[in-house]
Amino acid sequence: MSSTPPQTATASAESNAAACADQLKALFPALFVGPAKPLKLKIQADIQERAPGSFTKQALSAFFRRYTGSTSYLIALTRSPHRFDLDGQPAGEISEEHRKAATEELERRRANQQARRAVEDEQRRNRAQLLRDYERTTLTRANFCALKGVEEAELDGLLDIARKEAAEAPPPRRDGPGRPPQRPQRPPRPQGRPDRPDRPRQDGKPQRERSA
After folding, report:
1. Cα(185)–Cα(179) distance, rounded to whole angstroms?
2. Distance CA 46, CA 139 (A)
3. CA 90 to CA 190: how far, in whole Å?
4. Which of 58, 176, 201, 204 has the fewest CB neighbours in a 10 Å radius?
5. H/E segment holding residue 91
6. C-alpha angle 56-61-64 in degrees, rounded to nearest 5
7. Are 198 and 207 in contact (CB under 8 A)?
8. CB neighbourhood size of 46 (10 A)
9. Tens place of pLDDT per residue across the chain (212 aa)
10. Which helix (H) or strand (E) segment is 49 a member of?
11. Rounded CA gap, 16 and 176, in Å?
12. Is 155 in contact with 141 (CB distance < 8 Å)?
């Protein structure tokens, strides 16, 4: 008995979800066209009632799992005061429980994204250092790989990535690291000192004010 490969099943599900999304936009543009809107609870029953036979339960469920799990939908849940029906009209307030769950999920995704970015930045710095060391080393290729803890078969690939990243890196700013920032120009010094009192002469007598 043959089974459907996972890649084929995933591609089929994505295709069905995309077709379902296009059909929903055509039938209910007030709700599904434009930025994501929080959906009325039990919206699937409303769809089956308004468009009987147009969607299978499995197709709608697959679409809504993806739609309500998107970051844009979660953001809408945290910002909108109410949900919307198929005509784009308000249909019930969003409970504090659902709003809190959306906020927590967004925070979790943001933290994961920051963690992935930190790992990627660290890997990029390591590759750049590997390239600099390789260009200066006098060791043999095998000894260099042993010193760096890198598989010899992986070295060329890492160096190619490092060279590409170095070529794509934006040029440093003039006042960035490695170059002192430009000093701001000082304003011109005022001529004369009208607010400075006359200093006493060495003989203790004050100097007379000069006549204009």
Report:
1. 18
2. 72
3. 67
4. 204
5. strand 90-93
6. 125
7. yes
8. 18
9. 445 555 554 556 566 778 899 999 999 999 999 999 999 999 999 999 999 999 988 889 999 999 999 999 999 999 999 999 999 999 999 999 999 999 999 999 999 999 999 999 999 999 999 999 999 999 999 999 999 999 999 999 999 999 999 999 887 666 555 555 566 666 666 555 555 555 555 555 555 545 44
10. helix 43-50
11. 50
12. yes
Contacts of 179 (CB under 8 A, 6+ apart): 172
CB atoms within 10 A of CB 74: 21
Hey, how many other C-beta atoms are within 10 angstroms of the C-beta on 210? 6
d(CA 13, CA 194): 84
Stated length of the chain: 212
Beta carbons within 8 Å of 207's beta carbon, 6+ residues apart: 198, 199, 200, 201
Q: Confirm if 172 and 178 have CB atoms less than 8 A apart.
A: yes
Residue 54 CB coordination number (10 Å): 14
Nearest to 19 by CA among 73, 74, 68, 56: 56
CA distance 50 to 87: 11
What the block records as the tokens of 212 is: 């204009």
- The residue type of 72 is S
CB–CB of 130/148 below 8 Å?
Answer: yes
For residue 208, what are its two tokens? 């007379």
- The CA distance from 111 to 154, in Å, is 31
